[in-house]
Amino acid sequence: MKIFCGRANPTTGSMEWLEEGEDYDYHQEIARSRYADMLHDKDRNVKYYQGIRAAVSRVKERGEKAIVLDIGTGTGLLSMMAASAGADFCYAIEVFKPMANAAVKIVEKNGFSDKIKVINKHSTEVTVGPDGDMQCRANILVTELFDTELIGEGALPTYEHAHRNLVQEGCEAVPHRATVYVQLVESRRMWSWKKLFPVHVEAGDGEKILIPPSEMENCPGVPSVCDIQLNQMPSSDFSTLSDVVTMFSVDFSKPVQSASTYYRVQLEPVKSGKAQIVLSWWDIDMDPLGTINCTMAPYWVKPTSALQWRDHWMQCVYFLPREEPVVQGEKLYLTACRDEYSVWYSLQKAREGENEADGEEHKADVCVESPVCRCRAHLLWNRPRFGELNDQSRTRQYISSLRKVLKTDSVCLCISDGSLLPVLAHYLGAKQVQCMQPSRTDLYHPHDLSNHLEDKIKIIEARPELLKPSHLEDKKISVLVGEPFFTTSLLPWHNLYFWYARTAVSTHLASNVTVLPQSASLHMMIVEFQDLWRIRSPCGTCEGFDVQTMDDMIKDSLNFRESKEAEPHPLWEYPCKSLSDPQEVLTFDFTKTVPQHCLSTEGSVKLLRKGKSHGAVLWMKYHLAADISVSTGLMQMSNEKGNCEWNPHCKQAVYFFSSVIESEILSDPAAVTYTINFDTKTGEIAMDFKL
Ligand code: SAH
Ligand code: ZN
C-alpha cells in the first residue's frame, strides 16, 4: 500500500503529495500523539484508578461478577487498573492497530493476559454473544474518550452505541458523569483572534483608517474549537462578566443521546461590559457521589490547577457571534448548541418581566446552525493570524519601515498570504501596488477590506516564476515587500519561501530595488521547559504498570526518519526558562538570490544557568529596515531567572533533545554543541545537538 502525505514545499510555497511507505502515517501519529502526555497526567491516572476500584467494589457488593468494557484502551492502562482492582474480565477495545498491538504486549508484560482481551476494532463494530467479541454485555463501562471540548473525539455517539449494544442496563460507568462549565468574559486580547480591528495609518496627507466591512464585522466565524492553555492567560488580559455557571452535564451510566440539542442557562452579569467570549472547561466525577473529581478549571477558579499540567485536556475559548453590551444585574440567557462533535454559544437578552419558566419561548431565537464564515476572512486567517494582524505595535513597525522606503513613484510588489501590507503601502502613497499571495489567491482580495481599493491594488494571480512584464505594466519593481507570512508554513523558517519567490522574480526587479525585509536571521536558545517536556518524555511505569513498551514505540517513531525534526509549539502557552543566551545562528540575505549551496553552521552555546536542558527553541527575526526588526520568537527575557516572553501570535520550533537524563547531570559551565544546516534545495533545516 502506498500512502500520499500532503506537505507544503517551502521552496515553492505550494502543497506537494509525497509518497511514503505504509508505516509513515502511523509513525507520525505515534510520534506526535498525546499518549505520553496522558501517561504523565498523574492527577487523571490516580482518579481513574480510584474510580475504577470504587466501581468494581460496588458491583462485587451486589454479588455480581465484574465485567469491564474499556473503550479506547490505548496502552491498556484502564483495563489493567480494573483487573488489579479485582474485575473478573475486561474487554479492551482499541481501533488504532499499532496501539492495539502495543496494548497486547503491555497487558502480557504486566501479567494480565488471562483477564484482559484486547479487541482491535472500533467499538461500534464489536459483537456480543457466544461467538462474538464479547461473551456477554459488560456491567462496568470505562472510557477516556474526551478532548478539550469533551465531545470532539466522538464520546457521545460511542456511549450511545455502547449503552444500546455492549453494556447492561444500570451499569456502572467510570467516569460517572461530566459537567461543562462556562464563564462570560470581555477580553480585547481574545476578541482580537476573531475580529479585525480598525488599522490606523499615519500618512503624509493625514491619518487613514482601514475599517473592516460590515460583512466581516458581523460574521459568526468558524466552528472549529479554540483550545488553549488558559492558565497562561494573565488575569489582566480579560475581565469576567459572570460567575462560573454549569452549562450541561452528561450521565455516562445511563443511555446517552448524541443527537443535536441545546442547553440554556440564565445569567446575571456581575459587572457591566462587552460580552465577547465564553470561556469553558469541564470536569468529570469518577463516582456517582462526585467525591472523586478531576477538573480542568483554570487558576482563578481553582488556584491549584497549574499544578496539574496537561496538554491533552485544556480549556476552550468560544467567540460569541457578535459583541453584546451587558449591564450588571440584567437577565441574560446563554445558550449552548451542540451536534455530535462540537459546541457553540449564543447570548440572548431576557424580555421585560420574563422569568426562567418562560425561557422556552426563546426556542425560536436559539441558533441551531453552527457558525459558518460568510466573509471569507475567517477561512483565510486563523485565530493567531487575526491576533498578529491586530498587533498594533507590529503594524507600526511595518508602517515605519514602509514609510522609509516608499516613494510616490514606487512600483511595489507584495508577496505574502492575506497580508495588509499592500493596503498600508497604498495608504502611504505608493503609486502602483500589486500583490501576490502564492497559496491563497482564491480566498482574499484587499478589495474585501474596502471597495475603494478596487482599482488601487492589483492582484497578480500568477505564481512568482510565471511573472511576466505585462503583469507589472512593463515596469520594474522598485520595492519588494513581504511580512513574510504564508499559510502553508508550519515551522518558522518555512516563511523563507519569500526568499525563493524573490529569487524567482529577480529579472523584474529594478537595479536599485529595495527588499523589505532586507534579511532574516535564525535564532536559537537552550531551554528548560516547565511542563512541555512531558509530551516527549518516557514514562517507564504508570501507577505501578510497566508501560515501557509504549515509550519504546514512541522513541522508534520519533527516530523513524533518519534525523529528528523540530516541531512547532506556541511557547506563550508553554513556559520555559532559558539556560543559554539567545544566539543568532544563520542569516538569510534577501537582497541576494537564494544560493545554490547549503547554509551551514556549527558552534557551541554555553549553559549559563543550572537546569535541565530539554531542548532548543528556534525562531526567525525579520530585519525590515536599518534598526527595525520583528521577532517571531523571543520578545523579552528577564535575566536573573531566565523567564522568557514569546511572541503570542507565532509558533516557535522546538527541538527536543533525545535524552533529558543526560542533560540533568550537567554540572557547572557546560556547553551544547550544535550543527545546523539549511538545505537550499528543500528549504528545510536539519539540526543536531550534543550535550
Ligand atoms: N484509555 C487510554 C487511552 C485513551 S486515548 C488511557 O486512558 O490512557 C483514547 C483511545 O481511544 C485512542 O487510542 C483511540 O484510538 C481510541 N478510540 C477512540 N474512540 C474509539 C472507539 N469508538 N472504539 C475504539 N477505540 C477508540
Ligand atoms: Zn468570516
Automatic annotation (TrEMBL):
InterPro entries to which the protein is assigned, alphabetical: Arg_MeTrfase, MeTrfase_PRMT7, PRMT_dom, SAM-dependent_MTases_sf
Q: Which residues form the Protein arginine N-methyltransferase domain?
A: 176-347, 518-680
User: Keyword Cytoplasm: yes or no?
Assistant: yes
What keywords would UniProt list here?
Chromatin regulator, Cytoplasm, Differentiation, Methyltransferase, Nucleus, Repeat, S-adenosyl-L-methionine, Transcription, Transcription regulation, Transferase
Q: Which CDD domains match?
A: AdoMet_MTases (cd02440)
Offer one example of a GO biological process linked to this entry. methylation
| Main enzyme class | transferase
Q: Which residues form a coiled coil?
A: none
One Gene Ontology cellular component annotation? cytoplasm
For the keyword Ribonucleoprotein, the answer is no
**Where in the cell?**
Cytoplasm; Nucleus
Q: Which reaction does it catalyse?
A: L-arginyl-[protein] + S-adenosyl-L-methionine = N(omega)-methyl-L-arginyl-[protein] + S-adenosyl-L-homocysteine + H(+)
User: What Enzyme Commission number(s) does the record list for this chain?
Assistant: 2.1.1.321
- Signal sequence span is none
Question: Which GO molecular-function terms appear in the entry?
Answer: histone methyltransferase activity; protein-arginine omega-N monomethyltransferase activity
Broad class of the protein's primary localization: cytoplasm
What is this protein for, i.e. what is its function? Arginine methyltransferase that can both catalyze the formation of omega-N monomethylarginine (MMA) and symmetrical dimethylarginine (sDMA), with a preference for the formation of MMA. Specifically mediates the symmetrical dimethylation of arginine residues in the small nuclear ribonucleoproteins Sm D1 (SNRPD1) and Sm D3 (SNRPD3); such methylation being required for the assembly and biogenesis of snRNP core particles. Specifically mediates the symmetric dimethylation of histone H4 'Arg-3' to form H4R3me2s.
What this protein is called in its record is Protein arginine N-methyltransferase 7
Q: Which organism is it from?
A: Cinclus mexicanus
By which gene is this protein encoded?
Answer: Prmt7
